[in-house]
Design a protein that fits this description.
Layout (H helix, E strand, L loop, with lengths): L1 H10 L4 H19 L2 H11 L4 E8 L7 E6 L4 E7 L4 E7 L10 E8 L2 E9 L7 E7 L2 E6 L3 E5 L4
Parallel strand pairs: 1-7
Antiparallel strand pairs: 1-4, 2-3, 2-5, 5-6, 7-8, 8-9
Family: Belongs to the plant self-incompatibility (S1) protein family.
Pfam families: Self-incomp_S1
GO biological process, one term: rejection of self pollen
Length: 157
Amino acid sequence: MFVSIIIFCSTSKMSPLSKTMISLVLLFCILTTTIEHTHALTFCKIFRCPKHTTVRVTNRLESNEVLTVHCKSKDDDIGEQKLVFDNDFQFKFKTDFGIVDSRTLFFCSFQWGNEFKRFDIFIANRDHCTECFWDVFERGPCLEYNQGQVGYCLPWK
């Protein structure tokens, strides 16, 4: 298949820029299909290959109040969710492809009682998880790790 495309490019009346672009795409395809798995991981670390990500938000308010959460990105509105204590909701998405960095960002507002807070629930350059499970406390959101144990907490925005 690759040989046919190369022959087509060399014999057709395509502009030099088109031929260069096709050659680069072919080179990318060849490299990504022939390099070893560890090299592919290195490639994706450098070029930030898109990844499927799940974000889960769990109400852990010590006051046992209902937590209203509204998450969105520049392109997607996840909608408003009302969570009683210890309940959660989740959403899934695929990160952007980016050379050096990905620009995927999801932000949420959180409301309970008279409190109103904001937090960037997913920032591609900060969060390297594919399953990002956040517990929301009054003091701020905490990222889980190792099956429910609290990892690290961040301040409200």
